[in-house]
């Protein structure tokens, strides 16, 4: 899927001002994960801004500040499906719509209008690299669109005022120039199709697959799946063996996994992983799992299985999501009451937090704080011997 822009999200209702950077469009799971990281469940509490457009930057002046993050994601999802020809068509349609608004004094361009325009890009003609009236006039004359001039002798064409001809044509058909070409509407615009409500998703991992020798053979596989469903997908792909196919997309409930699940021959193991994640979700351990995966620098599928197996050997504190929360929690444990409040006011909290993290071998993730029960280095796997020798942590969390 074509990526449209970089977006920064932060919660306006949380005391923690750390935000999340996402590349839009994002999946529903990626959005849910971002909300979890910025500690909010309400879209109304989310402040967002576009940091960079990779394409469609001409839309920037028309983004309504009241647009919800879900509306914007839906818009970028629609934009991501357009090719360069259609992108130019959309820019032209937007110019026409802005002109209509100015003439009718009808206010700003709305989100539904932008989505309606994006769904009508094929109702336009685009003349690439035609950016002036003169170029437009010459195109129409040389391609026989001005039958009234066809009878002229060849020597007369050099005397024609192509700029005047182009202007007449542009004004008569209400076309517009964009930086990438001339756009004219060839059909009436259709209203936006009725919006389908977002459905609740139940899969743990969704894989999009393609036969690597035939791009027309594609399939979507939701995991965990039965053996029967796996066989059905192989038939859909015309792939007797999994190495006859390849992944073209991955959407996991733990988005950190998306970049790790790349080898189609691992599919049976990935299905096992989906079963394990489903159990973690049912037991309320999913957030801890995501925090441990991030804190321990998992890079491979085997790393992920190792963290699931040894998840009980990691400590996780969801309430400690920044250094200030760590300092307050530690002082309350050591001193409590008024003494904790008094020392907190005069403490070099940054330095104290760093020392506490170092002492416990801990790391603060967007989900909460993680450390090993044996206080060993987080970036080193827990060995079987260390697992057997694990002791209860003696810390204030």
List the SSEs and their pairings.
Layout: E1 5-11, E2 20-24, H1 28-37, E3 46-53, H2 69-79, H3 84-104, H4 111-118, E4 124-128, H5 133-142, H6 154-157, H7 162-173, E5 176-178, E6 181-185, E7 205-211, E8 214-223, H8 227-237, E9 245-252, H9 267-282, H10 286-295, H11 301-309, E10 314-317, H12 323-334, H13 337-346, H14 349-360, E11 363-365, E12 368-372, H15 384-388
Antiparallel strand pairs: 1-2, 1-3, 4-6, 5-6, 7-8, 7-9, 10-12, 11-12
Helix pairs in contact: 2-4, 5-7, 9-11, 12-13, 12-14
Model description:
The chain has 397 residues and is α+β, with helices and mostly antiparallel strands. The protein is built from 15 helices and twelve strands. The chain has helices spanning 28-37, 69-79, 84-104, 111-118, 133-142, 154-157, 162-173, 227-237, 267-282, 286-295, 301-309, 323-334, 337-346, 349-360, 384-388, and strands at residues 5-11, 20-24, 46-53, 124-128, 176-178, 181-185, 205-211, 214-223, 245-252, 314-317, 363-365, 368-372. A three-stranded antiparallel sheet has the order 2-1-3. β11 and β12 (368-372) form a beta hairpin. α5 packs across α7 (162-173), α9 (267-282) packs parallel to α11 and α12 crosses α14 (349-360). The longest helix is centred in the N-terminal third of the chain and has 21 residues, at 84-104. The protein is globular and about 95 Å long. Mean pLDDT is 89; it is low at 391-397.
């Amino acid at each position: 899927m074509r990526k449209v822009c970089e977006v920064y999200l932060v919660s306006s209702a949380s005391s923690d001002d750390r935000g999340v950077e996402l590349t839009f469009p994002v999946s529903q799971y990626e959005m849910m994960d971002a909300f979890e990281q910025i500690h909010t469940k309400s879209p109304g509490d989310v402040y967002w801004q576009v940091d960079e457009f990779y394409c469609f930057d001409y839309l920037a002046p028309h983004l309504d500040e009241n647009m919800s993050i879900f509306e914007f994601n839906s818009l970028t999802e629609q934009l991501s499906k357009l090719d360069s020809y259609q992108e130019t068509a959309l820019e032209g349609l937007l110019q026409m719509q802005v002109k209509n608004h100015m003439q009718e004094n009808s206010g700003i361009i709305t989100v539904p209008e932008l989505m309606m325009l994006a769904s009508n890009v094929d109702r336009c003609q685009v003349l690439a690299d035609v950016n002036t009236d003169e170029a437009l006039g010459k195109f129409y004359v040389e391609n026989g669109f001005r039958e009234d001039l066809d009878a002229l002798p060849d020597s007369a064409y050099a005397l024609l005022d192509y700029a005047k001809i182009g202007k007449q044509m542009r004004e008569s058909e209400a076309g517009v120039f964009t930086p990438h070409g001339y756009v004219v509407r060839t059909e009436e615009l259709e209203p936006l199709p009725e919006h389908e409500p977002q459905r609740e998703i139940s899969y743990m991992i969704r894989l999009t697959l393609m036969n690597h020798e035939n791009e027309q053979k594609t399939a979507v596989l939701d995991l965990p799946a039965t053996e029967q469903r796996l066989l059905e997908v192989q038939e859909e792909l015309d792939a007797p063996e999994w190495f006859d196919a390849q992944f073209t997309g991955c959407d996991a409930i733990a988005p950190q996994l998306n970049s790790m699940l790349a080898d189609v021959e691992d599919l049976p193991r990935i299905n096992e992983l989906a079963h394990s994640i489903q159990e973690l979700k049912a037991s309320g351990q999913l957030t801890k799992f995501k925090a441990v995966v991030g804190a321990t620098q998992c890079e491979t599928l085997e790393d992920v299985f190792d963290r699931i197996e040894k998840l009980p050997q990691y400590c996780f504190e969801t309430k400690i999501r920044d250094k200030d929360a760590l300092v307050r929690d530690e002082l309350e444990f050591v001193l409590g009451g008024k003494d904790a409040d008094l020392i907190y006011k005069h403490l070099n909290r940054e330095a104290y937090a760093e020392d506490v993290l170092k002492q416990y071998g801990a790391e603060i993730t967007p989900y909460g704080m993680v450390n090993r029960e044996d206080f060993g280095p987080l970036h080193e796997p827990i060995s079987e011997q260390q697992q057997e020798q694990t002791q209860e942590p003696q810390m204030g969390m």
